[in-house]
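Try this one yourself first.
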């Protein structure tokens, strides 16, 4: 039984809401319970009794002047949620945190990446959620997964993104003309879970492809997806 290693970005400000996530195009990931973190609905379907599961949480530690940092509290919520799901499964879950300043300098990126690849294990299964966090986390996580696949003989299982739709309050549509100012509510009963693992492999495909010129390369991709 292979170890599962799961990379999760913990949000800073907005509290994640518990929602029913419905998988798009992948019924294997259907989970009937509500979760705050969409990756936990995947783990609820894929974890097995007595298998090792390592959760690697990216946590921002810098408190900005204009925004309260609740990352540590949300990390606690994550652990509490997954441990509750695991009560009926019995997997052996451990938690590892990568704490860095909320900063996008090269030095911070380097430190995050080095810490992330140190969490990899030989012959493991890799999972990731990219719902929350700053945009720079996506290429960093993708690079970590590539490193694991190439040097640790790891198998990338799922990269997921959870989407919650916001519904405008019709009472305010006419009263307030600026869409960004209209009060909205979250539709927590129809959240969507997207398995975006194929996006990760698009880069690998582009690197591995061979074509005589740019037009041939584009045509090759079109034929591949037709």
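Now uncover the answer:
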């Amino acid at each position: 039984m292979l170890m599962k290693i799961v990379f999760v970005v913990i949000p800073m400000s907005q509290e994640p809401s518990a929602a029913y996530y419905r998988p798009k195009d992948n019924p294997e990931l259907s989970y009937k319970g509500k979760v705050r973190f969409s990756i936990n609905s995947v783990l609820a379907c894929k974890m097995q009794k007595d298998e090792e599961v390592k959760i690697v949480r990216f946590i921002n530690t810098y408190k900005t002047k204009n925004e309260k940092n609740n990352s540590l509290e949300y990390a606690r919520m994550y652990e509490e949620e997954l441990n509750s799901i695991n009560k009926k499964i019995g997997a052996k879950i451990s938690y590892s945190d990568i704490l860095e300043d909320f900063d996008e300098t090269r030095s911070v990126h380097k430190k995050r990446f080095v810490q992330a690849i140190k969490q990899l294990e030989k012959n493991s299964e890799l999972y990731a959620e990219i719902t929350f966090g700053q945009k720079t986390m996506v290429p960093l996580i993708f690079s970590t997964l590539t490193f694991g696949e190439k040097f640790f003989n790891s198998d990338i299982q799922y990269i997921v993104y959870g989407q919650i739709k916001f519904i405008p309050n019709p009472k305010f549509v006419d009263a307030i003309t600026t869409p960004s100012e209209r009060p909205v509510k979250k539709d927590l009963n129809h959240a969507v879970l997207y398995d975006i693992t194929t996006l990760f492999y698009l880069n690998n495909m582009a690197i591995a492809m061979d074509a005589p010129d740019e037009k041939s390369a584009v045509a090759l991709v079109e034929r591949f997806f037709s």
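Discussion: The helical segments are 38-46, 71-86, 106-117, 137-151, 170-173, 197-208, 214-225. The CA atoms of residues 59 and 99 lie 5 Å apart.
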